[in-house]
UniProtKB/TrEMBL annotation:
One of its GO terms (molecular function) is oxidoreductase activity. This is Short-chain dehydrogenase/reductase family protein. Keywords: Oxidoreductase, Signal. It is an enzyme of class 1 (oxidoreductase). Residues 1-18 form the signal peptide.
Length: 272
């Protein structure tokens, strides 16, 4: 493993540990308002481009879209993933590198919305991070093709949410966060005609959905969230007009973590 990659892996592990949930999952006693928590939401777009759909949140986004009857075009990097995703009814899987603009544009052509969960924080051989280059390609291609609905998944710690992040976590993740923030800024500053939404999750955990996660405009919100809940929220955000041109953090207040030991509950963003 090259030294940069080794450093990033170590850094990610340190940060994940700092965000990681403690054993406690709080009883959602505050689950009183239906607007506060994850609710199913019907209609949406017909064919959605997903970058990052091979695994993690992106893969769960693909499943969620399919469950709502939405077709998916997934850009993935390996033959194995093309085969796995192509086996799902409603998915067109295209093999390609998101770092290549033409590949992204070709794959997205014909879609009416785009979601990118690209990331991973490792540098390509040319020293560039997919967290910026790939996400920027998705944004640019959407602009060129007239795909006006875009959801960009970044992270708490980007932009206005910097102060929410514990300093030790910010320190190890700052290079990756800066790349994600650069992609955010492209959307915010240059794509004023686009109906974008930026979703910034807290520390990700691979567990079943709790249904207690929230989107919030509170830039001080911090904590953990299950990947399945992020996917649910992203797909709900896609068909919620209220989320257009919004930057929303995503956390699960019922999970206590080292970053949110008191289980502070931010004001939830109403999706409808
Ligand atoms: N881990 C955390 O606690 C945390 C916290 C906040 C935000 N985030 C961010 O949330 C997002 C989802 O995270 P996750 O851990 O669920 O997923 P992940 O494992 O980081 O998956 C990233 C996705 O990007 C794809 N990808 C990377 N480089 C690519 C390239 N050059 N071309 C095409 N695809 C490429 C990966 O495909 P391959 O399978 O080919 O690698 C994968 O599908 C990421 O952006 C992550 O940085 C993570």
């Amino acid at each position: 493993m090259n030294p940069i990659r080794l450093f990033l892996t170590a850094a990610s592990l340190a940060a994940a540990a700092a965000f990681a949930p403690s054993k406690t999952v709080l009883r959602p006693a505050h689950q009183t308002s239906s607007a506060l928590y994850v609710q199913g939401q019907g209609d949406g777009y017909k064919k959605v481009f997903v970058a990052g759909g091979s695994k993690g949140v992106g893969r769960l986004v693909v499943d969620k879209l399919l469950s709502e009857g939405t077709d998916v075009v997934a850009l993935v990097r390996s033959d194995e993933k093309v085969e796995e995703l192509s086996a799902l009814e409603g998915v067109t899987a295209i093999k390609g590198d998101a770092a290549d603009y033409k590949t992204v544009e070709g794959a997205m052509d014909g879609c009416d919305a785009a979601i990118t969960t690209l990331g991973g924080g490792s540098q390509a051989e040319d020293g560039k991070f997919i967290d910026y280059t790939g996400n920027n390609n998705v944004i640019e291609a959407a602009g060129i093709l007239g795909v006006t609905r875009v959801i960009l998944l970044t992270s708490i710690g980007c932009g206005s949410s910097k102060e929410a992040t514990p300093p030790n976590v910010y320190e190890v993740l700052k290079d990756v966060l800066a790349q994600k923030e650069k992609a955010e800024n492209v959307l915010i500053k240059y794509y004023t005609n686009m109906n974008w939404t930026i979703v910034r999750p807290g520390g990700l955990v691979s567990e079943d959905a709790t249904g207690n996660a929230v989107l919030t405009e509170d830039t001080t919100a911090i904590g953990s969230i299950h990947r399945a809940d992020v996917a649910d929220l992203v797909v709900q955000a896609l068909s919620s007009k209220a989320t257009e041109k919004k930057i929303l953090s995503a956390i699960d207040p019922t999970i206590t973590s080292s970053a949110n030991t008191e289980g502070r509950v931010p004001e939830a963003f109403a999706l409808n």
